[in-house]
Amino acid sequence: MISNLDANLYMAYLTGLLSAIAWIVLWRSRSPAVHAWCSGGLCAAALAALVATPEVWAYATHVYIVMAALLGLGAGLGNLVALWWLAGQRPPFGTIASLAAAYVALAALLANAPDGSTTAIVYILAMTTVLQGWSAYRAARFSVTLALPALRWLAASIGCASVASLLMLLSVLDDGVPGFGPMTFGSQAFGVLLLHFVTTVATSALFITVVLQLVTRQARRTQRALAMEHQRLQLIADVHAGFGARMASGHHRAECGQLPVHAATALLEYCRIDLLMVLETLDSRCTHVGEGLRLLRHHIQDGIRATQAALTWDIEVEDAPTIDPRDLLRLLRLVHDALTNALRHARAARIVVSARYGRDATLSLCVRDDGIGMPDDLSEGFGIRSMRAYARELGATLSWARLMPGTCVRIDLNLGAC
Question: What are phi and psi of 182, to 5 degrees?
């Protein structure tokens, strides 16, 4: 059987231990709210240990009064400041400083009053209880602002802790000093201590939960921001590598008077299709070769009708795995450039696009036409250089073969390496 003071002393040890555990668990969050909260918890533990010392009630000196006042102030304001920082707001330091000054001054006045030592300690306990209630109120308000259910439960836990402190304070006011006798099961002191124990453990656990949830939420926001920035840079790079470079080349040719109307129309049509492919592959859901080729077929059909060429698609890639959207864009640009060359330069009447996915995880794409074929003195212009660059970035093998008549452009890509 232990006495009331010993039981409260053990509670002080538990409070300090839980604050230290929370500090250790949340140290890597680098949040000032964690430091403020855990510092407040250690101050509350020290205050509880001080109040549970019989000498404080037997002959409370000014040293005890000052220590109790500072510890009570640190316990109450530590929680309050932590809650403001958790909500991402600046604490009202002016109001807090004024409250702290009034708190310490009144405690000093009560300590100098006749028989004021005990009164001062009771006052300190009362102010600590009031600060707990204020913390519960702020936590409830911030739970609405942050839309965080765990913070609402934390507010309820702090409110219950303030009720436990109030009941303990009323017990002290009734008895004058805490009971030195043994604590019996079912007594009022036992009920108050049990409530204080439950709320202390719950408050520490909920605070850790709130901080971890806020850290996770911030990490997700940062991840989304980085993803958006990456997408923006990717869009700029894709635009520059595709129709942006084509437009720059066309602008230069137009200034030199080397871009007739039909060539300008073809250039604009190429840029339109390329832009549509960039936008399609920005969607992370477009990652399958078959789907990409179907989109290219849809976008290019108007230009095919204008040339009156017959275009056949022979696609069997259902078993192919998904690939990165940027790799898919490079692959589609390769096919698009091959089709553009067959229509514009080879003047083909019939074009066949075939795609096969083999058991060795190799994708084979062929664009065959019946046009005039490749000249013997083929020079690598802008289009050929772009196709080689796309193939190099993909890690694919790009080759041209002469047919009788026409040309076959072949792209071999190991999807297992993508």
Answer: -70, 150
Residues 163-218 have pLDDT tens digits of 888 877 777 666 554 544 455 555 666 777 778 788 888 888 888 888 888 888 88
Spatial distance between the Cα atoms of 91 and 70, rounded to a whole number of angstroms: 19
Closest CA to 80 of 48, 33, 125, 43: 33
Answer for the pair 299, 276: CB distance below 8 angstroms, yes or no: yes
Q: State how far the Cα of 140 lies from the Cα of 138, in Å rounded to an integer.
A: 5
Beta bridge partners of 88: none
Summarised one tens digit per residue, pLDDT across range 7-63 is 767 777 888 888 888 888 887 777 888 888 889 888 888 888 877 776 655 555 667
Contact partners, residue 294, CB within 8 Å, separation at least 6: 315
For residue 85, give both structure tokens: 């920082």
**Which long-range contacts (C-beta less than 8 Å, at least 24 apart) are formed by 390-399?**
390/330, 390/331, 390/333, 390/334, 390/337, 391/334, 393/330, 394/327, 394/330, 394/331, 394/334, 394/418, 396/331, 396/334, 398/334
Name the 3-class secondary structure at 319. Answer: coil
Asked if 55 and 117 count as a contact pair (C-beta separation under 8 A), the reply is no
Residue 381 and residue 376: Cα distance in Å, rounded?
14
DSSP state of 322: P
Tokens of 87: 């909500």
CA distances from 78 to 27, 183, 341, 416 (A): 16, 31, 72, 56
Taken in order 163, 166, 170, 172, the sign of the CA dihedral is positive
Provide the whole-model pTM. 0.59
* End-to-end CA separation in angstroms for the chain: 71
Q: Cα 210 vs. chain centroid, distance in angstroms?
A: 15
Signed CA dihedral, 385, 391, 395, 400: sign only: negative
Name the helix (H) or strand (E) containing 400: strand 397-402
User: 144: how many CB neighbours lie within 10 A of its CB?
Assistant: 11
| Cβ atoms 136, 78 nearer than 8 A | no
Q: Which residues of 235-253 are buried (b: 16+ CB within 10 A; e: fewer)?
A: eeebbebbbbebbeebeee
d(CA 57, CA 8): 14
